[in-house]
Design brief:
This is Zf-HC2 domain-containing protein. The protein is an all-alpha fold. It has helices spanning 6-11, 13-17, 23-35, 37-58, 63-79. It has a single domain (6-79), classed as Arc Repressor Mutant, subunit A (Orthogonal Bundle), CATH 1.10.10.
């Protein structure tokens, strides 16, 4: 394997973190991250941001807001027929 370099590692970082690249590319990027503090830092930021967004998406809206949205949807649907 060979070090893929910062440009390649950063270009494919999101796919790497989601395991959406082939095994060879994954190994090359992993090797690069193991040896490049700057890219390690960027990977940590990307991973942390992804985890925060995922947690936020699991939260539910307050009941009052949900009721308002559904009421508005019912109005829109009833007037569009």
């Amino acid at each position: 394997m060979s070090d893929c370099g910062c440009e390649k590692a950063r270009k494919d970082l999101e796919e790497f973190l989601r395991n959406e690249i082939c095994a060879t590319q994954h190994s090359d990027i992993r090797e690069h991250l193991d040896n490049c503090q700057s890219c390690q830092d960027e990977a940590l930021v990307a991973k942390t941001l992804t985890e925060v967004v995922a947690r936020a998406c699991k939260e539910t809206a307050p009941e009052e807001l949900r009721e308002q949205v559904f009421a508005r949807l019912r109005i829109v649907q009833s007037t569009s027929h």
